[in-house]
Design goal:
two-stranded antiparallel sheet; 44% helix; 19% strand; Tscrpt_reg_IclR_N; HTH_MetabolicPath_Reg
Length: 262
Amino acid sequence: MHSVSTSDVPADVPADVLGRAIRLLVLVGEHPHGITLSALARESGVPVSTSHRLVNSLCREGLVEFEAAGKRYKPGLRLFQLGQQAGQVYGFAGTALPVMQRVTRQTEEATLMSVLDGTRHLYVHYVDGPQPVGVRSDPGRHGPLHCTSMGKVLMAFAPDDVRTDLLERVDLTPHGPNSITDRDALRAAVARAAERGYATADEEHHRGLRAVAVPVLRPDGSVFAALSTAAPAFRRSVDDLVALVPLLQSAASELGVRLPAR
């Protein structure tokens, strides 16, 4: 079995037990199909013996389940329950879902919602489109900011200090053929999004995928989330998606009023 010595632990690994347990729980949550103990230790930087002890404690609480056949740890039902409760608090299920379903009925494409989470965005809701070929997303997973329409919008409408910090710190790893990899180009794209009130992504996150996003703003003007329509490039041009901006903005305005305070 592969082990990670204490000297190998990265500097950003929490020193406290609770912090390490939370890191392991987050990693399990990011692998809905399961993750092995050795992979948990490697990705978390927490030694195997410690990872084993902590993840078994999470299993006892129902937050994690151990699949004996594949020797993999998966999210437990208790974690799902907590996620559902959090979704209700933020209004993602009861409030956002009906609005997003209506948008999808009108666009016949997938509708997605994300919130800013550090230097990434977190997918919080998704409505599948009716087309046989479409875009899929997994709520609870993270996405990059620099190469997604929602990421650009979330940066564009973030408070000035947050936006300035993000533009300096976000990772510019290329994900698709048109990913932005230059920081000045990213600043320009975010400035355009702020000016226009929407952002697009043209095969930036994935090859063959295009998207457009608008901000969901509170009545006080602060950004709460981003709302997006995404579609295969063969079916929708960028101009097609931009034509949907008024529809998305109308839905976003409704959500900005109806979603509960964070």
